[in-house]
Amino acid sequence: MERMEPDTFRIAIDIGGTFTDCVVLQSSGRRLTTKALTTTNDPARGVLDAIGIAASTLQLPLEDLLGRTTTFVHGTTVGTNALAERRGARTGLLMTKGHEQAITIGRVRQKVTGLSEREKTHVTHLNKADPPIVQPGDIRPVVERIDALGRVLVPLDLGQAEFALDDLVSSGIEALAVCCLWSFLDPRHEEAIRDLARRKYPDLFVSISSEVAPRTGEYERCVSTAFNSYIGPIVGDYLTRLERGLAQRGMKCSLLVVQSNGGLGTVASMLGRPLVIVDSGPAGGVLGARWHAGLLQHANVLCADVGGTTFDVGLVFADRVQMDPAPVIDRYAYLIPKIYVKSIGAGGGSIAWIDRAGSLRVGPQSAGSVPGPVAYGRGGTRPTVTDALVVLGYLDPDFPLGGTVRLDKPAAEHALAELAGALGMAVLDLAAGILQISNAQMADLARKVTVERGLDPRTFVLYGYGGAGPVFSAFLMRELGATTAYVPADSGVFSAFGMLTTDIVFQEERSTNLRSPLPADGAARINALYAELRERVLKRFSLTLLDRQAVQLARSVDMRFGMQVHELEVDVPDGELTPVDIEALTRDFIAKYEATYGEDSAYVAAGIEFVTFRVTGRFAMTRPELTAPASREGGEASSLITSKLAFFAPAGLVKTAFHAGAMLVEGERVDGPAIIQRAGDTVVLPPGTTAMVDGHGGLVVTAMESAQ
Amino acid sequence: MSAPSMDVITFEVLRHRLWEINDEMAMIAARVSGSPAVYESSDFNTAILTASGEGLFTGVYVIRQASALDVLVQSVIERFAGRINDRDMFLTNDPWSGALHAMDYAVVAPIFWEGEIVCWTGVVMHEIDVGGPKPGSWTVGARDAFQECMLMPPVKIVDGGVLNRDIESIYLRNTRTPDMNALNLRAKVAAQVTTRERIRDIIREYGRDTFIDLQHRILDHVRTALRKRIGQLPNGAWYAEAFLDHDGVEDKIYRFRLKLTKTGDRLIFDFTGTSPQAKGPINCAYSGLIGGVVQTLFPLLCFDLPWAHGAVADCIEIISEPGTVNNATFPAATSMATVNAAQITGNVIWEALARMFSCAEELRTEVTGLCYGGVNMAVLAGERADGRPFVNMFTDSVGGGGGRSFRDGVDTSGNLVAPSYGIPNVERIESLFPVLYVYRKERNETAGAGLWRGGVGIEYMITPHEAPNGIEAVFFTSGAAHLENKGASGGFPGSVQRHLVLRQSGIAARFAAGIIPVDPEEAGCASLHVPAAKDTAHLAEGDAWLCFCDGGGGYGDPLDRAPDHVERDVVVGLCTPEEALRLYGVAIDAGGSLDVEGTDSARAAARARRRNRGRRLGPDWKPGASFAGRQLFRYGEILACRETSDGFALGCLRCGHVLCGATEDPRQRSLLVEEELSALSPLNRFGREDLFVVRAYCCPGCATTFAVDVQMRDDDPARPEMLLEPLQFTAGSMGTA
Fold this sequence. Notes:
The complex is a heterodimer. Chain A is an alpha+beta fold. The longest helix of chain A has 31 residues, at 218-248. At the A-B interface, helix 4, helix 9, strand 20 and helix 14 of A face helix 1, helix 6, helix 7, helix 8 and helix 12 of B.
């Protein structure tokens, strides 16, 4: 007998460029997904819209749904957008005199940072970040200097700093960033300036580099600090208002926000350090992939998120999410633990065209969602990858895309015919060719992110998600020579779902100037540093009213060889470290270095630097459970809807089975050529591939031979 | 036997894949190397070449390093004929075998398929030291190759997959940085092993014939696009000259002379008249000549195409006399080849191309002034406080970008021919070496003035810090005597660049007084030492080394620059109020704001001054001639070629003055205004004003500049810049532009 206890809910909301996705997990095990249009001007409205749709689908008043919600997780691009669209606070910068142009000079490389090799070839058109996040006129020097050993060479001239601060404030700045050379060794100068600013201008948002990113490298540290101040007021305002709005509508739990490191944090913990949520958008999908990989025991996973305009690749291997050693936003390199994702402009909206030498090209220009592909009938005239998919018969005009857009196949054919005529090709051959080029570009990116790390893409399972991911998964699997692809359930809202699979995580880190062989007090300094970082982490948990006792702590250190640039993170055991323990760390580092960069790659003669020490606290959250139906809804005999002709190169037009995704049951097998139409996406199985429905409602795709 | 013709789809798929493979080879090499020069400053490059050594793809790092790999692979093929086997690799740093200079050690590898070579790969890295008398191997004072570092002609460093330890040990014995060089060698080998497998994957999947066909198709594709691009330009010849100051032994001036002829869809680069090779290390061999040519053609001509040397080579011809400074014969000293003779070779091409490109609307946006045209770096070496030795090349030196036809040059941009170049954090260098950066900043008074100005260069000051025995410095500069970064289309050149040594500086005293100096006057010193362009110096404790780098050349006449842009530059310190008035005729009031009336009168006065001081190089073409008529094309910023009632002519779009007939050089009848170097920037007082002068060529009608040159005082000012081919000018010929 079921207890009549009412359901409780766990909700995840992910704001994307076009849609705000919502996933609701019920304690009874059911799940619901909804989408609302993203409201760029006031994103909170889109959030409430999406929850409102969920409530009405559940036939519950919104207050009841929120009142019975135990976890509310949110991924937002509000900080990222503020940076990308330059809508942040006008930020003043105080920096060590003589070095205040570090952010403007941008280590010279700013003009190419984050660009693809293709973009770099147009050398005469390269520019540094434009407009800059901090206007050159809003930068003032402060008189102080600390050296590489942490010694004060010139004490802080607080009077001069006050004058500079007053000058900036009177010129109209809305936020302040402070960055002093070597402040991660001695933060007192920055702290004195911060205290001064807080005293004189309590409403001014202030960040100091020794708090935001206490790591070595003044340019990236300065950028991080400036970013933090730039987005601070907007992010704080948004999150505070959203949390208040949800509370007013009956929510009793706290609002948890996804950080770019893949952990969750409370709103209170982010108000001073909003940088932790910047570019967290792609994190959800990678987290979801990591969770599935654990369930399915996939050791190496390539995460392939295909949308309308971009293709994102992330990596999970040996149970760990690959982190980004050098994150970039809009030409600015910054320092923050962030999940690695590499993007290129490729997706359903990529436009097919002929270049001046007469070659067929696909992308990187995209028709985006407006006007979109020709088949959407929203005014698009240039043929896209999606149009090719329609012409090939994979996307079915009789099955409305996303439940709303009805595809115009004749229009797509017409657009392709023009291009085909110019190339002297048949329309279907051209459509297959566009798909093939698109697949190849995506596969090239997937190879790049693996091969560059010394990994073999063939040993990875390809996870395809995002609105268009399931179309390409089987093709990409083949292209890469991988044996397996996985298409999760609800792949269109996979990012939102992934956010429900992670924990609350707070990290604190600090760079040092310690190097091996350590000075006599080296071990003591490291122990003191870890104690300090530990306290800082636990304090953040306490501030969020979480039980310190339940927090799991982990320690690590980033190390590198002197004269070398690669840093590697080495795990550090608990407890007081002795010189012998530290010796063991250096051995671990050398072993890990050689495992990563190849035998004999260790450059021991140059000494080993202990670059950044880190403590990570983790407060475990309940994990979701996903199940696939064991029997068909309504007792239907089969999931098969119909058979139609679809074009698969090199075979040509072949009879292809169309299945209703909702009718598939656990353990069922679908052989290609087949199309599986699911609520939010379309899975394409070319001839020679087969898919098996697993216990979580996802599809395991393999080549036909290996399935037998 | 002809290979099966490849369909457009397969071509696009494989073209993309192979291009990516070259990019990845670079990333793998950089990753294994881990050395800051390679990883942080990107002083390296990679290439994929055909079986006969024609370049298919070149990486976006230091272009010239890989563009000369054609020469290198071809010399290996010749030298090892019949002895090149599967899994072999070849090592060399010999400029007469395709390396640029001794520090650029290259490893090239054939890729075999079923017993036959199907293509080659190559990786080059700049090694911090390869021995010789000077740390860093920039051999100031060397008169020939025997006084420099060891040269290794091509040797089989990997024989059938086995590293030859004998050669490796000779190599590593002859360097001050054996561990780093060993790692880099490993990186070059490892990257090419991975790449070999990736290329063999393509052949496994698509077959040997398709892969061979692919390479021809890539070359065809680039060739076709290049020929179309070149074909749209008028036929004619464009001229440029550049100088190289100080040969590493003597303070002599070397001249680079170029006549660029465009005929049909071909370009001919004729260097005849270039100075004989030097008795000093600035020379480059033929490899450097090729590197210098191609390093400029890739970014300016192939900006949206694969950087395929093999295709470019088919569209150009190079004429050069052996025994000249950029085609030096053994045993010339060449350790400074890259940033001297090879770089200046690129500069004359750049200047001539900018003129030629400005004749076509599609290429006008590729026209820029020169940018960091020389070099201004130093190697510092010595011992740390704990006795450990160090040597480091300071890669902070970067100039400003050239002004463009649509926008200012990039401030502190680095070199056009090394797009991915970066400089390290101050904290990084201070943690590794016993130095303190007093400051590092963008330097006003360096940029070339223009309608669109050049970007400013960098300036930094470094003092020994915890270096009890002081530091030995090796300086190498070009563009110290003259203004190397010329402008385009009437823009002015950027400043000179130099190293200065402040003996017994006042830095410590200023620090103690709570003052951070941000220029040499504030720092103070007992005496200011100005090292020669190529020189050495000892930096004692308390001394300071200052380095300032040249800004980019400007684009267009600075008197036409929007006054509010000048005002903005003054506000943020990129332009001084004096520069604003002197170069732009823009008056800034005491409060730092634009004085509109003052600007109007200053600009009028500046034009009047040009008229008064200038002299006509020739009389009017046809007195009272009208410039009305069908326009064939625009030339530069203010000139155009039109079919007028008096015939085909070049004239001024601003004032309608007809300069000359279309087949005459526009300088011949222009208004010439001479300026002293220091009239442009006070920094130019460190240059050789006794030798060089700035010559501005103006429209006699409106006194607007259409060309600005830097010449030796006794050079003939009437040397031409453009002579269009007469045959193309017949009534109704050439499309209207």
